[in-house]
Amino acid sequence: MERGKEGAAGAAAVADARARRYRAGYTAEERRAVEGSLLQGRLRGVCATNALELGIDVGALDVTLHLGFPGNVASLWQQAGRAGRREQQALSILIAFDGPLDQYFVRHPKRLFERPLERASIDPTNRQIMQQHCACAAYELPLDPRPGGPDAAFFGASLQREAAACFKRGELGKNPEMPSEANLRYIGELRGGPAKGISLRAIDEEIYQVFEEGTGKLVEEVEASKAFFQVYEGAIYMNQGHKFLCLKLDMDNQTATVRKSSVGYYTSVVEFKDIEVMGGNKAYDNHVVAARELEAGGSTAQVAPARYVAHITAFNKFWLRTGEMFDTVKVNLPPTTYDTFATWIKVPDAVKAAVRREDREFKAGLHAAGHALLNVLPLYILCNPEDVGCECANKYETRYKPSRVLLYDKQPGGTGISSQVRPIFGNLLEAARDLIKGCECDEPTGCPSCCHHTDCNQYNAVLDKRAALMVLEGTLAAQREEEEEGGDGAVNCLPCADQGAFFPGSPIRHVR
């Protein structure tokens, strides 16, 4: 039956009313409204990010539809657990994308269903988290930060340093009646205590508030470390399926003003990113690895504090229908900077020379090798793919870059993932090599099943599959020389049930 414009608009409104969107950046009021509508049966469906997997009791859902493998088995089962509550029947459907993990589990579904849950990675010494804990604890009871004091047993050796940082900022102070270092109290400005200013969904203390023009309605809150990537002036910003044009970014007041828009394009930033390992040229220290270290982990990888610096120079406009870029607009924004942790391994100079002898671009090989490492990382460590990054090559950049393969924590202060990665870097090198060798694509730059990565800020440009294989094999060969001196040639992995089954033929040994 032919439907007029009014009928089509009415049907769209009904469809929109029976299905809603849900993600962490929405205001608490919007999230509670969606959850309430689910509980009361007014909604037929919810399109959600992994924000909906966090133990929210949404009631009797019948079906969960998973668009792509979420990166780890724990998240998959947690998301599937939103349906079939209270002993009801339910259905969960996984629609596999063309990523490496998705395609592997399509070929080997038994290994998905029988795979145990991954081990979680946490960093209780993260400076931002520790300082927030210090303030909250001192609000409830006097805090004793002295080494060997009663609170050190709960907070660890870094308590005194982090309490001193809070004291310097004016959040903690001495009790006038008992002015001693062992009696620090919260003296900050937040009414109701410091917990009021701490987000459970983000590690950043600073946020940008996004307001709608005219109404003044709070649309969303964005972490400061991500604000320049989402709400720069001219950006097309998405919220609840609605497009907004960002009109103004007020960096002094940390606010952005947006207006609803129906333009037929989207935007994405052009950035130059640096990961600066702290301590001069520490990336090339003559690091001597003891035999026990090689036996326990299988590589000469190092981990150290690092600084993330991103310079956004412009943004591109892309047509929605074709994905074609049609305009580039320059912007003037300060760099986004935060301290984190990184783990890396040096690629031998001989490998660099061999790649160039084959007339291939070395930085493209490093870039593709980094992507392959990120693609296999969820096999070993429970992590959100957006929490870890590698050094991505920009096609316009001609600056010198170190000859290394590096992974870093993409959250301010670090998340502890780099520390978990260092002892299993040998495993990752082996798995990444086997992933690339086993991929049947004949694309010079690889494909989403081997060298492409969905979170690449350079849109998977400057990649070379063959050069990546040379980088990985050459670096592994250098590790074997180290192992012959101090190990038995086998690469160990973290305790697990069947990780070696993912890459048959790899010299991966399981340690329990």
Strand content: 15-25%
Q: Outline, from the CA principal axes?
A: globular
| Global mean pLDDT | 79
Low-confidence stretches: 1-15, 280-297, 487-512
Description:
This protein is α+β, with helices and mostly antiparallel strands and 512 residues long. Among the domains are: 18-95, P-loop containing nucleotide triphosphate hydrolases (Rossmann fold, 3-Layer(aba) Sandwich); 127-197; 278-309 and 339-510, no CATH class. It has 15 helices and 19 strands. The strands form six sheets. Strands 12, 13, 14, 15, 16 and 17 form a six-stranded antiparallel β-sheet that branches. Strands 8-7-11-10-9 form a five-stranded mixed β-sheet. A two-stranded parallel ribbon has the order 1-2. A hairpin with a 5-residue loop joins strand 13 and strand 14 (325-330). The termini are far apart.
Summarize the structure.
This protein has 512 residues and is α+β, with helices and mostly antiparallel strands. Helix content is 30%, strand content 23%.
List keywords for this structure.
alpha+beta, 19 strands, disordered N terminus, 15 helices, globular, single chain, six-stranded antiparallel sheet, 512 residues, disordered C terminus, five-stranded mixed sheet
Topology:
Layout: H1 5-18, E1 19-22, H2 28-39, E2 45-48, E3 63-67, H3 73-80, E4 91-95, H4 100-107, H5 109-113, H6 127-140, H7 152-155, H8 159-169, E5 172-174, E6 184-186, E7 207-212, E8 218-223, H9 224-230, E9 236-239, E10 242-250, E11 255-260, E12 265-277, H10 291-296, E13 302-319, E14 325-330, E15 336-346, H11 349-357, H12 362-376, E16 388-390, E17 404-409, H13 417-421, H14 425-438, H15 465-486, E18 491-493, E19 508-510
